[in-house]
Structure formats: C-alpha cells, structure tokens
C-alpha cells in the first residue's frame, strides 16, 4: 500500500474528512493545552535521540506546540512542547526549559502530519522536526534590524571585492540582505559592504522584521477562460469551497492552460480566507509563475526555495505561521512550513521525479501533500500533462477526481510527432544531428523561429577513453566514469561532484595525446550546432552551467523573449517552460531512457518525450517534434508518437499489476553503505537471513547485491529490495526487521519506501 498508489486510504482521512478549526487565540489554537510554569512537559528536540525529553515548563508557562530552547548537557538546543511530561525521569531532578521562542506554536495538524510522515517514511522524529524548523534565526525576536539593498550610487573606486558584493545584490534584484549574509554570499568581509554604504552604492535601512506579504486580491484580474477551462475551474472552486480533503488530478495536454485553471482554485482558497501552496518541481520555473500570480492577483506570493535570501526565508516561515502569507510558491520542502490554515496544495508537474527527496529524509512530496491535506482538510490538485501511473490508477479507481483539458489554448495545436529512423542514416563520427533534423532546423532559422535540441546528458562527453590502451577515466572514490565538462575544462564525477583536470597522458598506460571523448553531452552537441549553423545564436540550458538559480531564470526569460535561435538542453527544458517562438523540438536520442532495468523506464521516457515535445508550437505557429531513434517500432516510442496516452497507461498498469510491483504492490529499497566492503555484505547477508518479520507479513526480500553504482565517495554500497502485497503493514515489519541487527559505527542504513531510483 504505497502512498503513491493509495495515499487516501493509507493516510487515513477518507475524501470528505473535516479540517481543523481555523480560529487562533494568542498564538495558540482553540482548545490547545497550556502548561503553567514548573509543570512537567515532554519536549521533542532536533537532536538525534530516540525519545522525548522531560523538562519543566519555563517562566510564564507554555502552550503545547511551542518552540523552546532547552538545556541538553552543556548546550542549549531547539525543541517543541509535545505534550505533558512522560514521567520517565525523576521529577525532582527535571530541569526547566530555558525560554519560549518567539515563533507561533506548531499546531495540532502540523504535529500530527510530522508524526504520520515519520511513521510512513520510517524517519526519526527529530529529523522531521528539523525539516519543520528550517527558519534561519528561528527564535530571534521580531525587532527591527538593519538590511542592505542595492543603492543608486556608484563607488568612486571599484575593487574586485566591491564588484562581488554589487553582483550579488544585482543578481537578487531588489531583495534585502543582512550584513553577514551579504558578505558571506559575496565572499568578502563586512567592511567591504560598509564601504559601499558610505559611497552610496548600497543602502542601509532599518526594517521591521518579517513584514506580512502584500494581500492578494482574488478578483483582481481574472482571465476569460475557455468553456472547458471554465468547467474545470468551477469543479476545482467547488472542491476548495467544500473545505474538506479531496484530491483532483488535473490532466491537461501541454499548453492547455492548467496553470490558469488551478489559479482559479487558488482564487477560491484566498476568498475562503485560507492559505494556498503551489509546489513547482524546478526553481527555474518560479520566475514565470510568480509573474503570472502578480498579473492575476495584483501582488507577489511568498517564495520558499533555495533561490531566496535567508532574510526572505525567515519572513516566509513566520508569516506562514502568523497568516501573513496567503500563497506560498515553493519547492517540496515548503510542505513542512507551519501553515495556519492550509486550504489548497497544488502539485504542478506532479509526475516529476524531483518531488522525491533522495537524500536525508526520503519522502515523495506528492504523497506527503496528500497526507498533509488529508489532515488539514485541504484540497489537493495534481497537475500534469503526463501524470504518474500512480495518480492515473488512483483516478481510475475513483480515489481521485479527474479533470481533463484535451486541447491547447487558443490557436495553438499539439505538435506533430515523427520518428527519425537512425538505422537508415549514415551518421559520420562525432555527429549526432541527422540530415533530416538539420534540414528542419534550417527551416526554422529561415523563418526566425526557435529550435530545441534535447539531449538528457550534461557535459561534453560521457566517457573519456584512451585510444592506446582502452582505459576509461573513472572517479577515484566512486565506481563511475568521469564526464568531461569542457566549459569548466575539467572532468567531473556526477556521483560525488569531484572534478579533476583533463590529463595529458593516460593514467593507465601513460601514453600522451591519446585520450578521446566518446559520445555526446549537451556541450558537444552545442559545438556541433555552432559548426553546422554558424549564423545561429546557440544557447545551452543545463543545470550545471549556471552559478545560481537567478542566473538560470534570467537565461530562461531571455530565451523566451527570443534571444536564441537554437536551444540545447537537458531535462531542465522539458519542465513547463513557455517559449512562444519555439516550433521545433529535436530529440537527439529518444532511446536513451529505455535502456536499463528501471521499473519506471517506460513511464519516464513516455513522460519526458511528451513533455519535451510539448515545448513546441505553443503560440500561433504549429510545432513539430522529431525523435531520433534506432527502434521506431518499440511500443513506448510508438505510444509517444501516436499520443495514445490512455492506451499506454492501461498497458503499463496491466504489466505492473501482473508483476505485483507499484502501484499494485509495495516496495522498499534498503541501501547499506560503508568504507568497509566486507561489513556491508556481512550486514546485508545477516538481514537477508533474518527475514522472519518480513515473511510474517508475506513480504519477500531480494539481495544483498552490489548497487548499480557500487561505490560513492569511497563508501561501498549494497542494496536489498523488499516486495510486499499492497495491504501488508510494511513499515512496522521493516522496523522490526532492521532492529534485529547491530550496525557497525561506520555503516549507514537507509530505508527508501516506494523507491523511485534504484541506483
Ligand atoms: N484562458 C486563457 N486566456 C489567456 N491566455 C491563456 C488562457 N489559457 C491559457 N492561456 C495561455 O496559454 C499558455 C499556456 O497555458 P499554461 O501555461 O497555463 O498551460 P499548461 O497547461 O500549464 O502548460 P504545460 O503543461 O505545458 O506547462 C500560457 O501562455 C497562458 O497564459
Ligand atoms: Zn565520484
């Protein structure tokens, strides 16, 4: 019963469960428990302990859910009042909590969410609390403080350090920074900033901390919707107005106006006086989205992602809790903000793999959104042109409502899709753009339209091989090949990020001048395009080429405005961008994702190809997508070309059902890692032998086997896979199972419920 197959029944609240009461008094919710000074309280801290700690309520007493500072040994640590004292500690010796922090207490809804998310993902509670308290300077009082922003003046003397500070300020537009934050981001000392203040190039202001965000006006500037958009919007509005939990899959072809439709749900939520959250899979998409919110509601929303300053993050966290932020646009971690009254969560591009957090707490934001909404009595909208199979199955089963938008907005039509059979093409070495694709690009150049060449491979070449001895250059600490990045003039390991210069001689045979790149990455493709279309302006969009999220957003805006003729991109460009002048999408290697044994290989390829093709022809001029492939008869390629989505999903669902894999069965991945290869195998074997707790629920364990990437950062990795029936109580069995073995100190064990990646 993975949440991605059946979130609603797993996570309790059936569709229609009532939400919590929204009234708030004195920072605590209605009916909240109060602990007078000196009463024993149980505190959840962010420290890696497996239990609650007892303290006495501090001076002035505290509400349940209140953030506290408590003494722990010689230190003061962050904690939250979780309930009355557990009594597990001698009452006479209880220490008092130091103080209550100036942050709104965590509400019952949020505490329940953290607890259930912890149970589901088998994450210790302290780690969940860390996710929920990621506001810089959480406990500092809301006093005025000094902030720094870009001024008008130019300093009489420019130094390298001064330039760095100004560059950071410019990059973040009008945003305010704190002194140390600005100096740190610029890599300079604070005196440089002060010098710029004297020169008038930087403004120093007293600003009240954590101001509420400007009000959004739900009826500011609604767009006239088409009939089918209106019908969808009406249904979403009704669902939001019901103020009860339910989930709707909003499935609309690329360019159909899904965003316009769910913005109506946001409008209804604002009109209800409740808060809305829109999750986007990629920070680079927030720029365009925030602009659309401003156009529709007359002001900008709060943002929560790695591209906002610490000052803004703090403000968002506190204003979300106080009700001073009506709409949050953010990355998956925005789900763990302390909303005062959450009425709507939109998960845009819900199929996107980046919703799965693959490090630290392993959770799928799409599934956690459903969990959170079911507790808060909120509506969930899952929007996608190519939904995940999980969501499609849930809609088929009637667990989710479903709205379909089948046509593009306005005169735009869906792109024509065609395969370019590479078996018949004579491709010279070092060339990846076939003749027919090149001719199509020429046609666009002649008409002043844009082309996109899509290749899901970063860097210049995936492999560097020695032509004298056949040696391939690998990473020193990972079992992975180093990828040449020519812009950086270095080789890079995509596992650990380590780089090294490209050697002149082969490290194995020491012959010089024989190292050669093999295969294409986007940088090499750009080289080919520049040579082939010398007059075209070529832009490369790949996540590693931009120093910051802002720089990437700026480049995307420039491309949308027509600043490039040929765009070369990785999967970054497939996600929801609007490039009105783009009429041709050329997929360099449509077969790339079909290799490998990943359970979701077919689904992912289907989604990615349909999404990337969907970038073409979004305005008046019709679009074409050309897919270079060696296997045009492959069922997945055929489904992509015909666009028979329902047929594809039905076939894919049937296959997974037969194999008993998600969403029809449950899986958990276990990754053991250690610098000591023997230790990981020993522990893996011990787990495999002692599978009693799993067998009792009818689950099977496979492995241990070396992970496909068997070593990362010097740690050897071994995987086990557990498969169970949908209804099996998997988490409890897993917890019991792994508790049987003793872990050597240096061995890490990570449990991934509903794994998306099998590396
Ligand atoms: N009713 C409308 N009135 C005016 N413009 C609209 C309307 N509906 C859609 N559009 C415009 O059509 C374009 C595509 O809409 P939108 O971005 O909402 O589509 P989408 O379904 O979210 O696309 P994708 O899945 O490809 O990201 C946008 O530029 C949007 O402003
Ligand atoms: Zn490495």
What is the mean pLDDT? 87
- Beta-strand content: 15-25%
State the helical fraction.
25-40%
- At the first level of CATH, the class of the largest domain is Alpha Beta
Rg computed from alpha carbons, rounded to a whole number of angstroms: 27 Å
SSE class: alpha/beta
The CATH topology label of the largest domain is Rossmann fold
Bound ions, cofactors and other small molecules, one mention each = adenosine-5'-triphosphate, zinc ion
Uncertain segments: 1-26
Gap between N and C termini: 23 Å
Approximate shape = globular
Domains (count): 6
Profile the largest sheet. Answer: 7 strands, parallel
Major sheet strand order: 14-15-13-16-17-12-18
Count of individual beta strands: 33
Task: Give the name of the CATH architecture of the largest domain.
Answer: 3-Layer(aba) Sandwich
CATH superfamily of the largest domain: P-loop containing nucleotide triphosphate hydrolases
How many H/I helical runs? Answer: 21
């Amino acid at each position: 019963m993975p949440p991605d197959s059946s979130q609603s029944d797993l996570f309790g609240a059936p569709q229609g469960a009532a939400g919590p009461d929204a009234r708030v008094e004195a920072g605590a919710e209605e009916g909240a428990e109060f602990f007078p000074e000196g009463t024993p309280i149980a505190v959840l801290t962010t420290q890696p302990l497996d239990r609650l700690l007892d303290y006495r309520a501090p001076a002035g007493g505290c509400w349940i859910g209140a953030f506290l500072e408590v003494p722990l040994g010689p230190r003061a640590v962050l904690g939250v009042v979780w309930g009355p004292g557990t009594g597990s500690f001698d009452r006479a010796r209880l220490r008092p909590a130091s103080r209550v922090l100036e942050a709104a207490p965590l509400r019952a809804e949020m505490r329940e969410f953290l607890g259930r998310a912890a149970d589901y993902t088998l994450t210790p509670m302290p780690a969940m609390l860390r996710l929920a308290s990621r506001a810089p300077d959480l406990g500092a009082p809301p006093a005025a403080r000094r902030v720094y922003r870009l001024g008008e003046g130019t300093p009489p003397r420019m130094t390298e350090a001064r330039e760095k500070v100004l560059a950071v300020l410019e990059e973040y537009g009008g945003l305010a920074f704190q002194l140390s934050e600005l100096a740190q981001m610029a890599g300079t000392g604070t005196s440089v900033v002060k010098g710029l203040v004297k020169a008038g190039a930087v403004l120093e202001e007293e600003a009240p901390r954590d101001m509420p965000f400007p009000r959004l006006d739900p009826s500011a500037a609604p767009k006239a919707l088409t009939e089918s958009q209106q019908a969808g919007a009406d249904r979403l509005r009704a669902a939001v107005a019901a103020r009860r939990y339910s989930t709707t899959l909003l499935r609309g072809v690329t360019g159909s106006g899904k965003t316009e439709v769910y913005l109506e749900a946001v409008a209804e939520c604002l009109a209800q006086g409740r808060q809305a959250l829109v999750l986007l899979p990629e920070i680079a998409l927030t720029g365009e989205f925030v602009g659309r919110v401003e156009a529709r509601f007359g002001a900008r929303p709060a943002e929560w992602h790695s591209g906002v300053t610490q000052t803004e993050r703090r403000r968002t966290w506190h204003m979300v809790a106080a009700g001073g932020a009506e709409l949050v646009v953010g990355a998956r971690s925005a789900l763990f903000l302390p909303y005062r009254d959450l009425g709507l969560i939109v998960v845009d591009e819900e199929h996107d793999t980046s919703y799965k957090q693959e490090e630290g707490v392993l959770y799928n934001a799409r599934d956690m959104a459903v969990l959170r909404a079911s507790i808060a009595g909120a509506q969930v909208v899952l929007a996608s042109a190519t939904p995940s199979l999980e969501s499609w199955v849930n809609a088929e089963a009637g667990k989710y409502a479903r709205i379909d938008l089948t046509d593009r907005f306005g005169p735009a039509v869906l792109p024509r899709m065609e395969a370019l059979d590479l078996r018949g093409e004579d491709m010279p070495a070092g060339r990846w753009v076939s003749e027919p694709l090149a001719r199509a690009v020429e046609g666009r150049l002649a008409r002043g339209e844009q082309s996109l060449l899509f290749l899901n491979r970063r860097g210049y070449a995936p492999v560097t091989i020695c032509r004298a001895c056949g040696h391939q250059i690998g990473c020193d600490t990972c079992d992975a090949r180093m990828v040449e990045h020519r812009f950086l003039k270095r080789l890079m390991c995509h596992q650990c990020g380590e780089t090294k210069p490209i050697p002149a001689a082969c490290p194995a045979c020491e012959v010089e001048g024989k190292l050669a790149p093999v295969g294409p990455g986007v940088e090499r493709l750009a080289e080919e395009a520049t040579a082939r279309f010398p007059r075209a302006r070529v832009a490369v969009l790949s996540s590693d080429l931009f120093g910051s999220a802002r720089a990437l957003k700026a480049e995307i805006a420039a491309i949308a405005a027509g600043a490039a003729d040929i765009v070369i991109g990785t999967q970054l460009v497939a996600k929801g961008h609007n490039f009105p002048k783009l009429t041709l999408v050329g997929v360099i290697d449509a077969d790339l994702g079909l290799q490998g044994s990943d359970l979701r290989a077919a689904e992912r390829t289907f989604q990615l190809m349909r999404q990337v093709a969907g970038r073409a022809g979004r305005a008046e001029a019709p679009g074409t997508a050309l897919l270079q492939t060696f296997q045009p008869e492959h069922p997945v390629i055929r489904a992509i070309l015909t666009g028979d989505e329902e047929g594809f999903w039905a076939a894919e669902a049937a296959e997974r059902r037969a194999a008993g894999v998600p969403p029809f069965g449950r899986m958990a991945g276990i990754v053991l890692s250690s610098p000591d290869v023997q230790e990981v195998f020993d522990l893996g074997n011990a787990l495999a032998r002692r599978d009693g707790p799993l067998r009792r629920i009818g689950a099977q364990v496979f492995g241990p086997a070396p992970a496909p990437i068997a070593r990362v950062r010097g740690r050897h990795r071994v995987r086990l896979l557990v498969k169970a029936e949908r209804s099996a109580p998997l988490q409890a069995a897993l917890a019991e199972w792994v508790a049987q073995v003793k872990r050597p100190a240096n061995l890490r064990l990570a449990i991934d419920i509903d794994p998306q990646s099998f590396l």
